[in-house]
């Protein structure tokens, strides 16, 4: 079951997995026909190769309520496949070429392992350490189940997450609560905060747009994806809380299993068009700087800590 919308609305799907070689994203089509990549052509995620056209109509999005502190409490939950922050009413996404107003319902994360990157989308074939998805539902629909029957029923804002040495204080409002949701089925309450504080506020007009699908079963092709060029930056220790302290099994399981590599494989775009926003950089020089693998970056981190790497380098 996948939690998508308040109040605790679940889509009735069987359980699925990522890391188990007997059950991985490539085999989802066996249990979920709509996840079969050869039967449908609008699957996500995709690789952003930056060979795309600029669309002058794709201006800044309107993020209503993202700068405000909402009433009540939010729920942070480990569903065994990701960590989800279920937000209350009061936030909406519109503009930027979206066909309607979309009410924001939750955000969640995808990551790799202690020595591997784990974003779902890639940039010129390179994967970021993590990716955050802010999920919103078209306002005309009463629930997510109905929205999934609409080709543009959901809007997902995708943010790459990269790693630096300093903590992201705003991100700490989530990462500091992760110990309370370490195991599948655990949840905790979070005091609401301005969601905009997590986002690259000064670069929100630089993004890419395409039509795709959910990246988890039932893989419904009902998503307008907006992927932002500029990443969110968190610290090594904040990322390690995801890669080392979150488990896909329940606390009393006979063998607890770390939740690693919870991303779906890349799909071809086929005849789909990927658009760049009016203010997107759209230059290959931006993507040519290699995104170092998590393993390489971790080795540099160790060298710095042990004094084997000169501070002047």
UniProtKB/TrEMBL annotation:
Q: Does the keyword Lyase apply?
A: yes
Q: Which GO terms describe its cellular component?
A: plasma membrane
What molecular functions are annotated in GO for this chain?
A: carbonate dehydratase activity; zinc ion binding
Names of the cofactor(s)? Zn(2+)
EC number(s) per entry: 4.2.1.1
* Record's keyword terms, sorted: Glycoprotein, Lyase, Metal-binding, Zinc
Q: Which residues, if any, are the signal sequence?
A: none
Residues annotated as domain Alpha-carbonic anhydrase:
14-278
Catalysed reaction, written as an equation: hydrogencarbonate + H(+) = CO2 + H2O
What Pfam families does the annotation carry? Carb_anhydrase (PF00194)
PANTHER family referenced in this protein's UniProt entry, alphabetically: CARBONIC ANHYDRASE, CARBONIC ANHYDRASE 15
Q: Which family does it belong to?
A: Belongs to the alpha-carbonic anhydrase family.
Q: What does this protein do?
A: Reversible hydration of carbon dioxide.
* Protein name (database record): Carbonic anhydrase
What species is given as this protein's source?
Gouania willdenowi
Question: Lineage of the source organism?
Answer: Eukaryota, Metazoa, Chordata, Craniata, Vertebrata
Its gene name is car15
């Amino acid at each position: 079951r996948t939690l998508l919308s308040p109040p605790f609305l679940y889509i009735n799907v069987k359980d699925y997995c990522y890391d188990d070689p007997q059950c991985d994203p490539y085999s989802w089509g066996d249990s979920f026909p709509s996840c079969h990549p050869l039967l449908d052509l609008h699957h996500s995620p995709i690789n952003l190769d930056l060979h795309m056209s600029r669309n002058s109509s794709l201006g800044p999005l309107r993020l209503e309520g993202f700068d405000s502190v909402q009433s009540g409490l939010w729920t942070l939950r480990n569903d065994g496949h990701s960590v989800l922050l279920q937000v209350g009413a009061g936030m909406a996404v519109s503009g930027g070429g979206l066909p309607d107003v979309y009410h924001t319902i939750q955000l969640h994360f995808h990551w790799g392992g202690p020595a591997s990157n784990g974003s779902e989308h890639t940039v010129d074939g390179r994967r970021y350490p993590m990716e955050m998805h802010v999920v919103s539902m078209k306002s005309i629909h009463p629930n997510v189940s109905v929205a999934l029957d609409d080709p543009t029923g959901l809007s997902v804002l995708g943010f790459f997450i990269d790693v630096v040495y300093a903590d992201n204080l705003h991100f700490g409002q989530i990462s500091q609560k992760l110990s309370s949701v370490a195991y599948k089925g655990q949840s905790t309450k979070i005091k609401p905060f301005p969601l905009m504080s997590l986002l690259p506020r000064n670069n929100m007009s630089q993004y890419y747009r395409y039509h795709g699908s959910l990246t988890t079963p039932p893989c419904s092709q009902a998503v307008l994806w907006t992927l932002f060029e500029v990443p969110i930056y968190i610290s090594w220790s904040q990322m390690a809380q995801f890669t080392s302290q979150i488990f896909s099994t329940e606390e009393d399981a006979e063998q607890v299993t770390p939740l690693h590599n919870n991303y779906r494989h890349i799909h071809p775009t086929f005849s789909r068009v990927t658009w760049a926003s009016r203010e997107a950089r759209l230059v290959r020089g931006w993507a040519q700087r290699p995104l170092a693998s998590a393993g390489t970056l971790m080795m540099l981190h160790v060298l710095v800590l042990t004094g084997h790497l000169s501070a002047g380098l």
